Amino acid sequence: MLLQKTFQKFQVVSCQLHHERVALDAQNKPRFKQLDRTITFDRIPLCPKNLRSHRLGCAHSKVNIDFDRLLEQLLEVLPKQQKMIESFKQTFNQLIACIYELDHKKGQLEHDLALSELHSDGNQTNELQKDMNIVLIKHQESMDALELLRSDIERLIDDQLNIY
What we know:
By secondary structure, the chain is mainly α. It has one domain (2-161). It is built from 5 helices and 4 strands, in the order αβββαβααα. It has helices at 2-9, 49-52, 63-77, 82-118, 122-161; strands at residues 11-12, 32-35, 38-41, 55-56. It has a two-stranded parallel sheet. A two-stranded antiparallel sheet has the order 2-3. A hairpin with a 2-residue loop joins strand 2 (32-35) and strand 3 (38-41). Helix 1 runs antiparallel to helix 5 (122-161), helix 3 (63-77) runs antiparallel to helix 4 (82-118) and helix 4 (82-118) runs antiparallel to helix 5 (122-161).
């Protein structure tokens, strides 16, 4: 029962990688610092740590490691479901790797978009925005797949633990 309750604490929240956004000033322009020729853009803060600790897919907490460890515990509790649980684990880790990659891509695109705006390059901005839309769509698809996986795991736990 404890395992069941622990799994239920995990949730999937599609944040669209909000924290990778570049912060804007009062004139709606990218906020940045410049040292010599290096420009560093200010970013939106991360979600509070207590929220990140249960949000699967978050690239800035240990929640995904915790969930993976819980799947290991599930293997011990439900050894007859080893094949299915290992499949869940593999899918989970693939999704997380994809989300981490998208997190990195969005951060780079936000940086490039902000530079483009500083240099008033409308053509480049349009191309970068198209790339950003693709990243956001892929992120949403990954988060949807993660929610489906989470609910499949929860259903397995509910079904199997109610048998015993």
